[in-house]
Amino acid sequence: MEQEKRYPRVKPTFLQKSKYKHMLDDPQVNRWFRNLLRGSAVAAAERLRRLGWLCEHFDTTPQEMAKLSRGKAEDFLYDMVSVLEGHGKRSSYISNLLKAAKSWFKFNRKHIEVDIRLARETGLYDQEKAPTTPELRRILDAADTRQKVGVRLMAFSGFRDETLGDYTGVDGLGISGFPETEIKDGIVDFKALPTRVICRPPISKIGYEYASFLNNEGCDYLKAYLEERMRPRKKETKRDGKTVEVESPGETLSPDSPIITPKQLNVGSHIRTSNISDMLKKAIEKAGFNWRPYVYRRYFSTKMLHAEEDAMPHSYGVFWTGHHGEILLQYTLLKGLDDVTLKKLRAAYAKADGAHLSSVLKAFQKKQHE
Asked: Which backbone phi and psi does 119 adopt, to 5 degrees?
C-alpha cells in the first residue's frame, strides 16, 4: 500500500476503450507509459497498443520480454520482422511495431544497437496529390461552418490536425491563439488582417511556439462560427408531459475557449484529434473525393512553394508550417517576433494569399455564378 502511494499508477480516461489498458496494471509497464506520456499522449497510447499487439500475437508478455538478454531481445526483433513479412505486413507497419518493442527494451536497460533492415516499398500515400484550388472550393462549399474553420486553419494557415485538438481532447487551439481578435457584445472583430495565429508549445509537434496567419476569408468563417456559438438558441424540452420550445443562452467565450468544439454548438470543450480528422474527412467525402484530411496541409505547402517562385523567402513557409528553421530559431531565442519582422511576415503571407489563393478562388466563384 505504501508503495502504491509513492508510485501512483495512471490509466487515462482516453484509454477507456483501449483493448490493452489492462497492461497498465503492471507497475513497470505503467512507469514506461507515464514516461512516454510526458512527451506525447498519442505516442504513449500508440506504443502501448503496439506492445500489447506484439505480446498477443507472439504469445508473450511485457514481463517476459523484459527478462530477455540483449542478444535474445535482438533475436526476438529479427524473428518478429521475418514473421510479419511472411504475413504480408507492410514495412511501415512493421517499423511502428519495432519502435514500440525497442522503446520497451530500452526502458528495461536493453539498448538495441543492431541494424534491423526492412524491405523498401512504395508508401500508401506517395501518389496522393494536393487538391487544386477549385477542388478545395468544392470541399468548402460542401462543408458546414465548423468544418470550414477547420479546413481553413489547415489549408491556409498550415496547422496540423492535432494542433486544432489534441489526442486527449483536453487541449487545442484556443481563442488566446488569436491575439489580434476582439470579442465584445457577441461580435467578433479582427484588429489586423490577415490575422496572426499562435501555436503554443503543448499543441506544437516540434515542442516550440510558432505562428502563422489566417486570411480574410478564413477570418470571415471564424467570425461566423464564433458568433453562432454566442447567440441564444432555441431547443425543445419536456414540461408537464408536453414538448415546449425554450431559449438556451449562448456560449460565453473567453481566451481559454476552444476554437473548434466537438459538436457544432458544444460549449466549452476541446475536440480530439481523431474527431477533427473525422469531421474534415466528411467534408471531403461530401464533395465527392476520397482523400485524407492531410491533403489540406499539403495544399498549404504547395502554395508556399508557388509563393517562393515569386521570391518569398523559403524560411517563411517553413516557419508557418511549424518546422525547424531560421525564423523559429529567432522566435524562440527572442521569445517573440519584433514589429519589423512581424510586418514582413504578414505582408509576405498576404501577397502569397492574394497571388495564389484568393485570385483563383474568386475566378472560380465568378464562373459558378455565370
From this structure: -65, 145
Distance CA 369, CA 231 (A): 31
**133-369 topology per CATH:** hpI Integrase; Chain A (1.10.443)
Per DSSP bridges, beta strands 233-239 and 242-248 are antiparallel
Q: How far apart are CA 100 and CA 106, in angstroms?
A: 10
Q: How far apart are CA 358 and CA 362, in angstroms?
A: 6
pLDDT score recorded for residue 263: 78
- Element of type H or E holding 184: strand 181-184
Question: pLDDT tens across 82-125, in order?
Answer: 999 999 999 989 999 999 999 999 999 998 888 999 988 765 55
Radius of gyration of the chain (CA): 24
Residue-level length of the chain: 370
Query: What is d(CA 162, CA 159) in angstroms, rounded to the nearest whole number?
Result: 8
Q: How far apart are CA 313 and CA 315, in angstroms?
A: 5
What's the pLDDT score for residue 156? 94
Q: Is the pLDDT of residue 280 over 90?
A: yes
Distance CA 20, CA 240 (A): 47
By the 8 A CB rule, do 96 and 73 touch? no
Counting runs of H as helices and runs of E as strands, what totals does the chain give? 16, 6
Q: Please state the pTM of the whole predicted model.
A: 0.76
Partners of 183 in the β-ladder:
188
Nearest to 319 by CA among 209, 201, 193, 161: 209
Residue spans per domain, the chain: 2-107, 133-369
Give the Cα separation of 54 and 48 in Å (integer): 10
How is residue 233 written as a grid cell? 438558441
DSSP 14-71: GGTT-TTGGGGGSHHHHHHHHHHHTT-HHHHHHHHHHHHHHHHHTT--HHHHHHS-HH
- Can you tell me the distance from the alpha carbon of 224 to that of 184, in angstroms, rounded to the nearest whole number? 14
If you ran DSSP here, which 8-state letter would residue 222 be given? H
- 322-351, pLDDT tens digit by residue? 887 777 666 665 567 788 888 988 999 998
pLDDT at 267 (0 to 100): 63
